[in-house]
Design goal:
Two copies of one chain form a homodimer. Chain A is mostly helical. Chain A is built from four helices and no strands. The longest helix of chain A has 24 residues. Chain A is elongated. The interface between A and B is medium-sized, with 33 and 33 residues.
């Protein structure tokens, strides 16, 4: 039987890697028109709750992958603030 | 102290809700040009590992939110197959 931490690390690595192309695209193209600020804030709050959950349950794969996801989405938030159209 | 299942349910609800606007946008606009097939497959595999992890750890919030995410991304995959440009 596969070790449960290994399982968590594989899961976290795959879902983390899958976030990178969108981040790279936004950073490169400086185009944030498909990003919803409200949804970004809802997502970051949700990820913060997952980190909290990971600490309560003492599960490192959950903490690490959600901290990584928060970082990615903080960068997207930064891009949103920098590049949004001023109308 | 807050109950850990409640924490997981809040976390899962927030991250699940945050996925819906993109899904609605793709379904409505029938526009999948921003979707990467490879990344969708990597993401769905990662989510499947999270579900497996949730079963091994016997944690319902992890199982439920990742099953929901798989559903959302399966619909995106379906849209991708239906609406991608044939070139």
């Amino acid at each position: 039987m596969i070790n449960e931490s290994v399982l968590g690390i594989i899961a976290g690595a795959l879902t983390s890697v899958s976030m990178l192309p969108q981040l790279i695209k936004v950073v490169k193209e400086k185009n944030v028109e498909d990003i919803s600020l409200l949804m970004l804030l809802v997502l970051i709050s949700g990820l913060a709750f997952w980190v909290w959950y990971g600490f309560v349950k003492d599960e490192l794969p959950i903490i690490l992958s959600n901290v990584f996801a928060i970082l990615v989405n903080m960068i997207l938030l930064g891009c949103y603030i920098l590049y949004r159209k001023k109308s």
